[in-house]
Design a protein that fits this description.
The protein is mainly beta. The chain has one helix and 18 strands. The strands form six sheets. Strands 12, 13, 15, 16 and 18 form a five-stranded antiparallel sheet that branches. A four-stranded antiparallel sheet has the order 7-6-8-9, with no helix packed on it. A hairpin with a 2-residue loop joins strand 6 and strand 7. The termini are far apart.
């Protein structure tokens, strides 16, 4: 037997398969699917449903997928042209609404159930109480119909780029995630630092806020980066408003770690560079010595061009 034993339907040779066995099999599968959908997110569009206005004034909705608040998949396999009537108003919201279709009646009991989806144009603004998933707003204007599709109605993929725009990725129209702060450039970037196995390094980022998005990358000695690209692994709300600690477990191959930090709101000012004069030195009075400032850091895409050392006592 492979893996951890979990609740499932177990079949053995020669057994009589009853309705209860098949229903249990479906319930287990549906339960796991529902858990995955809840993890991804409910009540939003996963991808697609791009709305365009045609030359004749009609509205076209592209194929796509959403998950309603009950965890039911709302799939639109091909483009549709829903009926749009503004009536006395000037704004409509397009929504997906789930319905269940039954066929194959045997002794009064439907034996085939199908998930159906309806596209509706509603004059009332969201939120809705019937689990409808909104994906577009239509505004009737003198120049024609204007279409608005907000990122807040969509689920960005895990490897989104925080650009705040819609992009086509792997053939699917998706939202690329809310923009971070006022810049796509991190305001703190530690660069890759060597962290000993079982050790840690504490960095002062100086951003003076806990409302942050933090990305950690790890690089092996062969140059392989384990987390690549903006948006793939983030942590939020650091417990310390000034510091971040990079820690290694007590096993595994040698690694270099890197932390990049974006404020979720515009920063009050630039991040000052951090001076590192190297290891402590004990020098007799009058003897010459050398300070190694190569581990000093500048952030926000800046570099250190000049070092000035001051004798305190």
């Amino acid at each position: 037997m492979n893996g951890v034993e979990v609740g499932r339907t177990r079949f053995v040779d020669g057994m009589r398969v009853a309705r209860e066995h098949l229903e249990h099999l479906q319930d287990v599968l549906l339960g796991h699917v529902a858990g995955g959908r809840e993890t991804v997110g409910l009540g939003k569009v996963c991808h697609g449903l791009q709305v365009t206005v045609q030359q004749d004034g009609s509205v076209s909705v592209g194929p796509g997928l959403a998950i309603d608040a009950q965890g039911r998949a709302l799939a639109v396999p091909e483009a549709q042209t829903p009926a749009v009537d503004f009536g006395a108003g000037a704004t409509l919201h397009l929504v997906l609404l789930y319905s269940l279709r039954a066929e194959g009646v045997v002794t009064g009991v439907p034996t085939l159930l199908f998930d159906d989806v309806t596209i509706e144009a509603r004059s009332a603004a969201p939120p809705y109480q019937d689990d409808a998933v909104v994906f577009a707003r239509l505004d009737e204007m003198e120049a024609g119909v204007s279409v608005t599709q907000l990122g807040q109605w969509y689920l960005p993929p895990l490897d989104h780029g925080h650009t705040g725009s819609f992009v086509v990725r792997q053939g699917r129209w998706r939202y690329d995630g809310d923009p971070v702060g006022s810049s796509s450039t991190p305001l703190f970037d530690s660069g890759f630092l060597s962290v000993a196995t079982g050790g840690d390094v504490t960095l002062v980022h100086g951003l003076d806020t806990m409302d942050l998005a933090v990305q950690v990358q790890a690089r092996r000695v062969d140059g392989m980066v384990t987390v690549q690209g903006l948006g793939q692994a983030f942590w939020y709300e650091l417990p310390d408003g000034q510091r971040i600690r990079l820690a290694r477990s007590g096993e595994g191959d040698p690694l270099e770690l890197r932390a990049a930090i974006w404020p979720l709101a515009p920063a009050a000012g630039p991040v000052l560079p951090i001076a590192d004069p190297g290891s402590p030195l004990e020098v007799e009075s009058g003897d010459s010595f050398t300070l190694d400032g190569t581990q000093s850091k500048a952030f926000g895409g800046k570099t250190i061009t000049k070092f000035v050392w001051t004798e305190l006592n």
